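Q: What changes when PBG is included in the input?
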Amino acid sequence: MQTTLKIGTRGSPLALAQAHETQARLMAAHGLPAEAFEVVVISTSGDRIQDRPLSEAGGKGLFTKEIEEALLAGAIDIAVHSSKDMPTQLPDGLELSAFLPREDARDAYVGKAAKTIADLPRGAKVGSSSLRRQALIRRMRPDLDVVMFRGNVQTRLRKLDEGVAAGTILAYAGLKRLGLDHVVTDLIPLDVFPPAPGQGAIGIETRIGDRAVEKMLVAIHDVPTGQALACERAFLAALDGSCRTPIAGYAAIEGGKLSFAGLIISPDGTQSHTIELQGPAQDAARIGTEAAGTVRAKAGEKFFDGWL
Ligand SMILES: NCc1[nH]cc(CCC(=O)O)c1CC(=O)O
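A: The predicted holo structure follows.
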């Protein structure tokens, strides 16, 4: 009898879409039926905490803790994640060993009366709980009222319908995976809203040394996405000292060449520092680390602890 590969995921509609995309790619790559895989839904602390900003409750790890425990315990064989939500430090024994081809990494504006942020009336409310997006909105339009917006993509869209805010910003990738891209009223250029490291890329976490699983994943791993992610995650890891400093970073790969653009910005949007660096895609991690060193030197150490 064939053993089934257990695919662990959160239960949000986006997480489920990502788990099913992974399953479909594995089926196609290996000529296996759906029954060769089982999608196992795991509830995480991040899903349960709804009353305060996650950056206060403990940060990124909240969406992965219970899933990683299940992976280490052998209750699941792979865990499918939004790479953007993954801490740079994983628990001992686990690694991100494969990435699916990256979806469009841009942020999207979803507006009601006004179709773009630029068209909003003075003082209009824009909902976002991301420190990076809040800072970028304030940089662009210091007059706007940035309000907290928690919950999954559907919850945020419902809040818009209820009139809680005039608009919100969501990852275009997530909306596309949910078949909700028709709600987008403006796609924001990468240089106006540089994305969070990892945005748009599905990452697959495995137990280090699980050769059978690694062999299966090679067939669905996208090499350029893996290189882009190595660069962006190295940039993030080298700057991660404070989770209160918004960090953006995006690496584009073309013909074996990597072009990285990074940004750090004060939460009020008034101060920011950028870095651009190119090099061979094989040197992805080194480029990310070097970019972090350069932008850190430009900004000065004070930049990272001044926002509490
Ligand atoms: N923090 C939630 C989250 N994590 C990943 C995505 C979108 C999908 C992706 O970036 O791959 C989202 C929603 C959003 O930012 O709109």
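Observations recorded in class: The chain has three domains: 1-100+201-221, 107-187, 222-308.
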